[in-house]
Design goal:
Blueprint lengths: L5 H27 L11 H24 L2 H20 L9 H17 L4 H9 L4 H25 L6 H25 L5 H24 L1
Helix pairs in contact: 1-6, 1-7, 2-4, 2-6, 3-8, 4-5
């Protein structure tokens, strides 16, 4: 909201995501292996289904974030955040009950992931219907790792400034936030978090609305 330059922030967020997703899946494998009734904590069947659907839209989205004006990309991101906010507030997250809709959501999620890194509300409903919830986190981390790796490769090939100095400055904060998030994930596996997500939706709505208004008026 302060600087309409997605390419300033996306390399930092992407590298941190690669680091923490890899560490989390590795730790889960060491702690829980083989886990989930000997099926492991990663659902490879879902990954083989999802990746072919997501990769091409992902690359199209990455091309967009590299070539399109920053304010336009920021407007897209804030608009998506606003849509997600309403789904949380109303307690009606996206759900899929058909194979065709699954494919559409995954392709759209691939594109949104390419433009930004906020595709989870599109992809999670598909993944949640195809695996035990205990496999969901690690499977999605592997999926994000692969998709973000493609994105970073495109950034490097296009000469995008990777902002390595910011990586180091922000790493301690990202580490604290990540491990707090892991604790919250364990809590969500056994508790009803409806009220929390409703308040989260209100916060997201405020951010998304403020971002869209700023882009339109300033």
């Amino acid at each position: 909201m302060i600087r309409d330059e997605p390419l300033l922030f996306l390399p930092v967020i992407s590298v941190h995501l690669l680091l923490f997703s890899a560490v989390t899946v590795w730790l889960a494998h060491r702690r829980d292996a083989p886990g989930v009734e000997s099926g492991g904590t990663v659902n490879w069947t879902f990954l083989r289904y999802a990746l072919p659907l997501m990769i091409i839209p992902k690359l199209i989205g990455v091309a967009g974030v590299i070539t399109l004006p920053g304010p336009l990309v920021s407007g897209f991101v804030f608009s998506m955040v606003t849509v997600y906010a309403f789904s949380y507030i109303l307690g009606r997250p996206l759900r899929s009950r058909s194979g065709r809709l699954d494919a559409v959501l995954l392709m759209l999620g691939g594109y949104v992931s390419g433009v930004s890194l906020i595709a989870a509300p599109l992809v999670v409903p598909v993944a949640a219907g195809r695996m035990p919830r205990e496999q969901l986190r690690d499977t999605l981390f592997v999926l994000w790792f692969i998709l973000v790796g493609l994105k970073l490769g495109a950034f490097v090939a296009s000469g995008v400034d990777m902002q390595w100095g910011l990586h180091l400055w922000l790493l301690p904060c990202a580490t604290i936030g990540h491990f707090l998030g892991l604790r919250f994930h364990r809590y969500t596996l056994r508790a009803d978090t409806t009220v929390f997500f409703r308040y989260l939706g209100l916060a997201l709505l405020a951010v998304g609305f403020a971002g869209v208004v700023r882009l339109l008026l300033f």
